[in-house]
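Can't paste images in this forum, so I'm doing it all in text. The chain is below; anyone willing to post the predicted structure tokens underneath?
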Amino acid sequence: MALCIPHWLLERVALGELSPDALADARARLEHERDGDGRLARLAEDSRRTLERHPPAAVAAEVERRRAARARMDSAREAAGRGGWHGLSLGMPVAASLVLLVLSTQRELPPEPAPARAPIIWNVSERIKGEPMLRVHRQGATEPEPLANHARARRGDVLQLSYVSGGSPHGVVVSVDGRGGVTLHHPATLTGSTELAPGEAVTLGHAYELDDAPGFERFLFVTSDAPLDVATVLEAARVLARQPSEARTRPLPLPDTLAQTSFTLEKVP
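Text version of the structure:
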């Protein structure tokens, strides 16, 4: 029996993001699936409902409101003469970012691959059910390839993220890159639930394609015993991303009641 095409490829079929040859090949594979056409139809219907819930005009208005709030916050910081590393208070006004893939130029890395290391984990709060963690797979021609922390990656690599909650009921996954770009991975939207599924690794619903931002792509997993404010985590990620020397290794500037784990990919040309 033919293997089902992965979800990330199905999304590209629905969005028309494949070359004509790749699209023809994907559609041929769908025709040999038991429910290939049904999967594609359900994805299209889900996209339609999402657009109904979040009309473009409303999204644009919310983006503008948050951009203005962010501008006011930056002005206040400049007026107060702030500088260096600062944490965030959960009570301060927080502006959420648009989730964008930012194109950039690649810097060189040493010729030999960096040794694999375990993900960096800041267990700030006490844990008795294990540690939350992120797992990253790179989509291949036949099956996903599991990546080690600090593995090498390139522009165009398609990644699938998954998490292990470690007993934490809530979490947010964001990434920062070498150009200062910030992307939200879980939940899928600013207003989405931060609830985590228990048990083994849970795959996120959308794949992620790397752009050519230089140096690194770092994924951070913030976990909590209570629901999280997604906008606050995004703002913390932007604060971290603006300091490239800190962004590779430092935790997000968030309250020490939250736990964080990090998974970094080294970008090569």
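The radius of gyration is 20 Å. Residues 7-53 form one domain.
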